[in-house]
Amino acid sequence: MKHSLNRREFGLGAAATGVVLAAAGGTASRAHAATPIRIGSLLPRSGFEALIGQGCQRSVEVAKKLLPDMGYSFEIIDADTESKPEVARTQAEKLIREGANILVGAFDSGQTFAIAQVAEQNGVPFVINIGSDPAITEQGYKFVFRNFPTSIMLGTNGLSRFNDLFKATGATPKTAVLMHVNDTFGQSMLKGINALMPKLNLPFQIVETIAYDPQAKDLSIEVAKAKAAKADIHMVVTRLNDAILMTREMVKQKYEPMAVISPGSPGMYQTQFLKVLGKYAEYAITNVPWLDPRQQFAHAFEAAFKKAYPDEVCDIDAGFTFEGILICADAHKRAVSAKPEALVEALKATDIKDRVMLGGAIAFNEKGQNVNLPSAGVQNRNGKPTVVLPAENAELKPVFPVPGWSQRG
Amino acid sequence: MLYLDIIIAGLLTGAVYGLMALGLSVIFGVIRVVNFAHGEMMVVGMYAAYLIAVKTGLDPIAALPLVTAGLFLLGYALQRGLINRYIARPEHEQFLLLLAIATIITASLLMGFGPDARSVQLDYAYDSFQLGPLLLDKVRVLAAVGAVLGVALLWGFFRLTRTGKAIRACADNQIGAQVVGLDVKRLYAVTFGLGAACVGAAGCLMLLLIDVQPYIATDYTLLAFIIVILGGLGSMPGALLGGALVGVSEALSGFAVDPSLKSAFSFALLILVLLVRPQGLLGRA
Amino acid sequence: MRSGRFPILPRRAAAALALFVAAMLALPFFVNSYIVSVLVVVLFAAYFGQAWNIVTGFAGQLSLGHALYVGLGAYTSAALFTRYGLPPWIGMLAGIAVAALAGGIIAALSFRFRVGGVYFALLTIAFAEFTRILFDHFDGVGAASGLFLPVSSLARDDVLLLRGSPVMFYYLLLALTLGALALCHDLLRRRIGYYWQAIREDEEAAQALGIDVFRYKVAAMALSAAMTSVGGAFLAFYENNLYPDTVFAVGRSIEIITAPIIGGLGTLFGPILGAFVLTTLGEAMTSLSSGFTLNGLKQWCYGAALLLIVALQPAGLWPWLRARLGIGAVRR
After folding, report:
1. Neighbour count for residue A295 (Cβ, 10 Å)
2. Inter-chain residue contact B126 with A253, CB threshold 8 Å
3. Which of B243-257, C4-18, C31-45 has the lowest mean pLDDT?
4. Are the C-beta atoms of C266 and C331 separated by less than 8 Å?
5. Does the beta-carbon distance from A218 to B209 stay under 8 Å?
6. CB contact under 8 A, C246 and A17
7. Residues B270, C300: C-beta atoms closer than 8 Å
8. Which stretches of chain A sit within 8 Å of chain B by CB?
9. What is the DSSP string of C267-300?
10. CA nearest to A22 within chain C
């Protein structure tokens, strides 16, 4: 009796499940080419990236209200990737079955990768709002477009702002310590930085590199190690929570370098960082693409965003998520069709001069990558991340070296 | 001198870890159920302390007795209502039960509080003081003192009170305890409540050190496992020793080798101890 | 033995199994690619569940770290493919060797030192986590930046190189799952199967009967690890990108074991039933909760469903279903 495999039920049960699934899918599938266009938006709104995913979702909500007023017609179907690549894959398939003509997403590189494969296999265009792994646009994809810098671009553009900063303020540090999170993003940034340091002719040397665990709950040791290096500037590649932990430890350990500068990572411009750390969040510098204060559209977007979410910072994630939707809607408008081939042709010809982020017009190269995404120097001033570099776009002049922890109001 | 600083920092953090792990140890030592929702219970404690701080302005340390009492009741009710039915069941069923509880806790917190990291603003959050050549972080010292006090209190309870002694009798011999007329069901519930109270207290202290988010729980459940096994499942001083060991080993390996490898050292330590002395450093064979 | 008591059943059972296989074979022709992608998730879960079921369900040793073998299988075959152009089927053999060795060593170390029960479970987590952190620093396979397989050749189905559409993977996984089912069915009829169950029910008694408990426990672990690694190789070639933090994740280990426990630990069809039920449940809840903007609702319902199942049917759904239908004795 040990082995009584019950084959009959086994067959029936499984077949029944299949039928249920089939029925569920059947009702969901609809014909393509509906007008207005259906945009499938995929974001990690639950799971460990829920914070950022829900942040990006705010921008999607703003786009739903703002863009139709400007003559774009579209409908957005939202999906949650639960911060997992395999869910991203099934949800992308599902959105396509529900009639999505184009996909946009997904913040995380792993999830973005999964969606890109679905998009290619189904022949549905996919616009990446955020996702920095360089490998994504090196796969020869025909339906994938990315309006976000690769981690190499982020590193290059971020590092090149360092010289602008020194020139603008007249201070030249000699040494730096680099503290970075040891995940996918942190490691590819590190590679970029190490490759570029010799080429950019920067005045300082990196004397110590400290990698820490992305799940670290305590950075006291890491900061002690950084402090012991006695470097002039403290360079960081962080996420949000570790940026907060790190800054707290720096204050406690009275570690006061000339400035804390990120060559292009999240963390220090985020709402939570500013809110939790208050005066200690001030003066932190992040070199990332940012909303362009000279663009009228940027002001309109920021105003709409602030009206809907007064407590949140309208940051890089918000800007690029909004532009992601804008790119889809714009392609549809020019294509005058929701057919994938027409949309892809329109996307290839994208040339959006009125945009919200810094840099020239949005356009894609033959790999589907927008290569024109420079970084701004963004410094936290009076509780708001403010563009301080490049000079022609700046709202305020940069402060460097920054006041010590104890000298702040 | 730098090394001394680092070892002390590791010890202080380790003390709080120890208090958290103690709850797991007490529950396993008596009820023989591994609480896979342990980290989640700590996060509940952290959110409770956070809520109290936001609504009343009470410091998490002042709110500690309240939170501890609340978690005691929660643990008591959980054991009475749910877990008690599973203590004689196979391990995998207990595992699934606690996994379901953990999932529900995390999802509830996400729905209630959102994914943002929450923290309390304290006047003394950034204070540190000089003790001879050492630079000590005030919050960490407070948390560590609180943790050691908590452990001492619990130890006193088990040694000196009637209920505590009865629970120990239960742990030693459940059938014997039943024979002499002890209400095992109630004692188990009290024990689970105490375990939850420990982790609640640890949550209040932890809130001084880190920000709370719904998703940090799993890491702490794992950490508690490591500590408890190092020290010996069911051994009270073992939990403190395990916490200190993990704290110091993370600090030293982080400083001397590579910070991103520091949890690998904890796992290596765990593997080593399990293979050489499976009952843990202070556990009974 | 069985056919003597239920003379009619085997023929009907064989017919039903044939019907099931036929239905599964035909399904991709009738459903859209969304359903196929969900079914692929189901089959992965079913297969991993079957592999895990051997060590925990049959031999009674609770492993909570099976993501380790998924990762070893995935990384071995993917690295051999990307670096040396070795076809995945050969890489898979290497993966089997690596995983079986790892599983065997972990089991041998544990059981030699008499680490059992909860301690063994935690040891398996520790090894998996330790390996995850090592791979985060293993530059040869991309470290934390990840390992990528070229996807340019995905347009055509190529079974030899495992490049192709989800439908191809669906059929491969179906074959794998059915193969695992046949293997488990066969193993349970053999001496080793009886020994495992004897060890699971009472280790000391088994020892007293002269069973080499140590050897059979290690064998269960090695076999389970080897089978898991094959699934890992398929996973690598299906997903085309590997990050240590997702491949070796504790969450993956937990997902692997949930389906067989829900379906019925130690039963043959439990892992498959559990995988169908859990994945379908998850998808249904995603659809239902998408109407609300409350993030976390899906996970809450999922947790509640798990609680309900463990409260009402702690031994799993399959034994219950069988008992309900009045066929055969419930075997745990």
Report:
1. 19
2. no
3. C4-18
4. yes
5. yes
6. no
7. no
8. 46-48, 50-51, 53-54, 182, 210-213, 215-218, 220-222, 224-225, 228, 240-241, 244-245, 248, 251-254, 272, 276, 278, 280, 405
9. -SSHHHHHHHHHHHHHHHHHHHHTTS--TTHHHH
10. C31
What's the pLDDT tens digit per position in C272-281? 999 999 999 8
Radius of gyration of chain B (CA): 19
**Chain B residue nearest residue C116, CA to CA:** B278
How many residues in chain C? 332
Per-residue pLDDT band at A8 (split at 50, 70, 90): very low
CA distance, residue A217 to nearest chain B CA (Å): 7
User: Which of A3, A11, A79 lies nearest to residue C17, judging by beta carbons?
Assistant: A11
Do B200 and B41 meet the contact criterion of CB atoms below 8 Å apart?
Answer: yes
Residue C323 contacts A, CB cutoff 8 Å? no
- For C265, residues 6+ apart whose C-beta sits below 8 A from its C-beta are B90, B92, C53, C56, C57, C315, C316, C332
Residue partners of B258: CB distance under 8 A and separation at least 6: A211, C137
- What are the pLDDT digits (tens) for A202-218? 899 999 999 998 888 88
- Would you state the pLDDT for residue C152? 63
Residues 6+ apart with CB under 8 A from C292: none
- Residue A2: other Cβ atoms inside 10 A: 12
- CA distances to B233, B269, C78, C106, C115 from B275, rounded to whole Å, are 15, 10, 32, 10, 7
**Closest listed residue to residue C321, CA positions, set C284, C283, C269:** C269
How does residue C153 score in pLDDT terms, banded at 50, 70 and 90? low
Inter-helix orientation angle B162-172/B2-31, to 10°: 80
Mean pLDDT of chain B: 89
Cα separation of B158 and B22, whole Å? 13
Interhelix angle A220-228/A240-252, rounded to 10 degrees, is 60
Beta strand A376-381 with A384-389 is antiparallel
More confident residue, C265 or C323: C265
Fill in the DSSP letter of residue C58: I
Share of chain B above pLDDT 90, in %: 42
| Strand, helix or coil for residue A43 | strand
Residues facing A291 on adjacent strands: A357
The CA distances from residue C316 to B278, C163, C251, C260, C321, in Å, are 31, 36, 21, 8, 9
How far is C-alpha A113 from the chain's CA centre? Answer: 14
Is the pLDDT at C3 greater than 70? The verdict is: no
Pairwise CB contact (< 8 Å): B259 & A221: yes
DSSP β-ladder status, A376-381 and A285-288: antiparallel
Q: Do A8 and C35 touch (CB under 8 A)?
A: no
Pairing of strands A384-389, A102-105: unpaired
**Are the beta carbons of B28 and C119 separated by less than 8 Å?**
no
Full 3-state SS string of C145-195: HCEECCCHHHHCCECCCCECCHHHHHHHHHHHHHHHHHHHHHHHHCHHHHH
Residue from the list A46, A213, A241 with its beta carbon closest to the beta carbon of B262: A213
Decide if pLDDT at A15 tops 60: no
Q: Which residues of C227-260 are buried (b: 16+ CB within 10 A; e: fewer)?
A: bbbbbbbbbbbbbbbbbbbbbbbbbbbbbbbbbb
Residue with tokens 């989640």: B40
Residue with tokens 């209502």: B81
pTM of the model: 0.89
How many CB atoms are closer than 10 A to CB A145? 28
Q: What is the DSSP string of A162-229?
A: HHHHHHHH-----EEEEEEE-SHHHHHHHHHHHHHTTTTT-S-EEEEEEEE-TT-S--HHHHHHHHHT
Q: Which residues contact C189 (CB under 8 A, 6 or more apart)?
A: A2, A3
CA torsion sign, B105 to B106 to B107 to B113? Answer: positive
The tokens 């300082």 sit on which residue? A204
